[in-house]
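ASSEMBLY PREDICTION REQUEST
Request ID: AP-0331
Submitted by: J.K., bench scientist
Number of chains: two
Total residues: 415
Priority: normal
Notes: Please return the full assembly, not individual chains.
Input sequences:
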Amino acid sequence: MADAQPADPVLQPIAYGHPVVAFFHVFFKVASFLVYLLCGLFSSNFIANFVAVVVLLMFDFWTTKNISGRLLVGLRYWNEVTDQGSNWRFETLEEGQRSINAKDSACFWWSLYIQPLVWIALGIVTIFRLKIDYLLIVVIAVVLSCANVFGYTKCSKEASNQLKAMATNAMRQGLTAAIARV
Amino acid sequence: MSQNRPGNAGFSEDVERLFQHDASVPSVPVSAQQNPPGIAQDTSGAHSPTSAQHLPLNTLDEPVWETILRDVKRIYGNLKLVVFPFGSRDQQTTALRNWDLWGPMTFALVLSICLAVGTDEQRTVFSLVFGTLSVGAVILTFNVILLGGNIGFFQAMCLLGYCIFPIDIAAIVCAATTNAIARWVIVLVALAWSSWASVPFVGSSVSPSRKALAVYPLLLLYTFLAWLCLVKN
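STATUS: Completed
Returned structure:
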């Protein structure tokens, strides 16, 4: 499952609008996953393994939240707290700002949604292998990746709402103009 | 009961306000409409104006280094606010609204490493400390939210994580020295410092009558960690 993800950006770099960003977007996800899977083979030092995976996960979370989302699909979410409680703010591409590359977008959304699924599957395996301390890593991974999935899903809903509103507005204006002409 | 009522009224008002926000969103671009209140509050907080300046702008096409720079400034601002809480208290309650997870994660890892290195069962100690920290932070956050606190999940995690910083220092000192008196002193100072930095944040986010309920488990967690520093040989 992990092999399918990084293959795309490597094979066809030219087709991507932001190949470097797309690469890192996938790289940190796959790297954290692979290090988690393989660290037991190369090093028995649990602390080093733990720190390596968690740092990779943090890099991935940060890259996805702050870099790849806005460059690959033109979305960005902020969660800030105001006096009224938790407040979501979304940034989406405005009209005519630029268009989104289809490959960028596919790469972004697929890896975004696959990541938590892979980690949840790994978590189930880890539970059955009774490795409670490694489960801690999986929980961190699931929490971080799900936070991004949640944020971006909300953000893209917001974006499509805006588009719809713009379309209805344009239609309404067109209609009123037409009626005025009659 | 009488205390609940105003709370409920406030809550339903909040809900109404939320829906009003939602209803008005589609007609106007979000970044144009929702920002002004957020900015006003951000700049009134003690936060560095640089991070607030960026918020109203369209940041979708900013250079990567600008994103990095903003986050570094944010981490520095958060750390300064939590670790040196000398400013006025209401500035602090509005602070940390720009949460980040780098600080908490780093401090949690540093503390776990410091407490685990040199012990017989490194692996167990490390995962025990890290697990206690993360699970404790989650439970404490839910505790504050359930008590009616006005605090976001990640914000609370951020706050609790940053407030471990003094205990981190105590753990490092304790790893370096075997002098019992020095250890006691540094651990007590660190514990007081952590509590001093974190209690106002948590305490001011819930109503005064529930303050103790929110603060007590927090102190328990920090005391536990400080005690681990102390007993580590």
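REVIEWER COMMENTS: Residues 4-181 of chain A form one domain.
SIGN-OFF: pending second reviewer
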